[in-house]
Design goal:
about 500 residues, alpha/beta, Aconitase, domain 3, five-stranded parallel beta sheet, four-stranded parallel beta sheet, 4 iron, 4 sulfur cluster binding, IPMI_cat
Length: about 500
């Protein structure tokens, strides 16, 4: 089943081979993490789909075994030789994540169905992250975190990223922040695995070449007790993104372009696989942005083939071996979409739907009240570096309140320590201060999901906001009459400087 390949050149050639869609897919590679790092980055193992027992040809033709990435991952997790879209299979779950919003309900269902004294199936595979309604005086929100803490102590959960001192997040060494970004930073996202979470944007982790999707509390309660989930195999839509990325575009523009193309129901219960030279050029955080918003198109999961960029990001983050898989050359896709990225322009999604896509320059007369840069989609280190680049290029001050909410503690630290390229050594925090932005807030989901009224930057009045978040439904960030324009960090920063929805090329070209 496996053959060793020791030469790094052969590994690189295999990944480069993916560029030709008609060529054979590269062989999956098993990476041994050892004591936290891949012990031998040159050791690659070729893994084929499990062999089927031979049988005589039938009148329907030869047996087809080619599979997409998603089908291969689910086949491995269900110990099946092959799968086809539409099949229902029991899969073994590698990681289950829950947070303070859905965690108490999940725990309640687990205890009701398995007993008050029941133990979770594997305390090493459960990840619990308070992140949504954290920095608030709301007693019910705080009680949710207490429930998580009590459960994790009872179950001796290894990966509980607790927060106890709400007055100073830096005093909490275990606290991380937004679950989807924290999962990646803490090494819980690994190629070839199945990750489920009680949050629709769990699909964010598909950037690592794994099957990741959101599930409800009932399913999560069952997973807590058994480690298994019943899933229907989704068909795969392939998105081929080629061409050099213009300096004024970010992955947020790409995914908004795609959602605008296919609509918010265009990928309903389908896997969205992203390939092509543009995707290969993206760093991991930009790939996460792509996969994060597949749910806004109705997708079951999003996935990007793992490559050297993926493996390098994971170095030192995980001690678990992983085996990436890739779509076979003859795999059957539901449909193909192709984009020449070099010809795209900055876009926004107007209220009140992520598929209400227009060019940013077409909204230049839309006056705004505020800008919000944050969330799992738009609050990563690369997102803030992009915003800082616009502020630096302009040398001007913002004309509307501009709120900055780092996704995690690590991102917050990056804002104060990483120099912005071309700035002469200035950090993001220095550039933001010079531009007149609000001081970066405590890491959390913040106002992305509205939350209690005292949530930082929540829209408690009807306002117009340009936001790097992922949804712009009525009431999403607070007030039901608020208007949210979804945009990239480039566009958000440019809009903050003018007080209107603004094409970032006004400052970057």
């Amino acid at each position: 089943m496996a053959a060793s390949v020791s030469a790094a050149a052969k590994a690189s050639a295999a990944f480069a081979h993916k560029k030709e869609l008609a060529a054979a897919a590269p062989a999956p590679a098993q990476h041994r993490a050892g004591s936290g790092r891949r012990s031998n980055p040159c050791r690659v193992r070729a893994v084929a789909s499990p062999a089927r027992a031979p049988r005589a040809p039938a009148s329907t033709g030869s047996v087809k075994s080619a599979m997409t990435m998603t089908e291969k991952i689910l086949a491995r997790a269900s110990e099946r030789a092959g799968l086809e879209p539409g099949e229902n299979v029991w899969v073994d779950v590698d990681v289950l994540m829950t947070h303070d919003v859905c965690g108490p309900g999940t725990i309640g269902i687990f205890k009701k169905e398995f007993g008050e004294d029941a133990k979770v199936w594997d305390r090493e595979k459960v990840v619990i992250i308070p992140d949504h309604y954290i920095f608030t005086s709301d007693e019910r929100a705080n009680r949710n975190v207490d429930i998580l803490r009590d459960f994790c102590m009872e179950q001796n959960i290894n990966y509980f990223y607790d927060i106890k001192d709400l007055s100073n997040f830096k005093a909490n060494p275990d606290y991380k922040g937004v679950c989807h970004v924290a999962l990646a930073q803490e090494g819980h996202c690994r190629p070839g695995e199945v990750l489920l979470g009680t949050d629709s944007h769990t699909c964010n982790a598909g950037a690592f070449g794994q099957f990741a999707t959101g599930i409800g509390n009932t399913d999560a309660g069952f997973v807590l007790g058994t480690g298994k989930a019943l899933l229907k195999v989704p068909p795969t839509i392939r998105f081929v993104l080629d061409g050099e990325m213009p300096p004024y575009l970010l992955a947020k523009d790409l995914i908004l372009q795609i959602i605008g193309e296919i609509s918010v129901s265009g990928a309903t219960y389908k896997s969205m696989e992203f390939v092509g030279s543009t995707v290969e050029s993206l760093n991991m955080e930009e790939r996460m942005t792509l996969c994060n918003m597949v749910i806004e198109a109705g997708g079951k999961n999003g996935v990007v083939p793992a490559d050297e960029t993926t493996f390098k990001y994971l170095e030192g983050k995980t001690s678990v071996d992983y085996e990436p898989v890739y779509s076979d050359a003859q795999a059957r896709f539901f449909s193909d979409y192709r984009f020449d990225v070099s010809k795209l322009e900055p876009v926004v999604a107007k209220p009140h739907s992520p598929d209400n896509r227009v060019l940013a320059r077409e909204c230049k007369d839309v006056k705004i009240d505020r800008v919000y840069i944050g969330s799992c989609t738009g609050g990563k280190t690369e997102d803030f570096l992009a915003a800082a680049k616009v502020f630096l290029a302009s040398g001007k001050k913002v004309k509307v309140p501009t709120f900055l909410v780092p996704a995690t503690q690590k991102v917050w630290m990056d804002l104060y320590s990483l120099p912005v390229p071309g700035s002469g050594g200035k950090t993001c925090s220095q550039i933001f201060e010079e531009a007149g932005c609000d001081t970066p807030a405590s890491p959390s989901c913040g106002a992305c999901l509205g939350g209690p009224r005292d949530t930082y930057a929540r829209m408690n009045e009807p306002m117009v906001c340009v936001s790097t978040t992922n949804r712009n439904f009525p009431g999403r960030m607070g007030h039901k009459e608020g208007q949210i324009y979804l945009a990239s960090p480039y566009t958000a920063a440019a809009s903050a400087l003018t007080g209107y929805v603004t094409d970032p090329r006004d400052f970057l070209m």
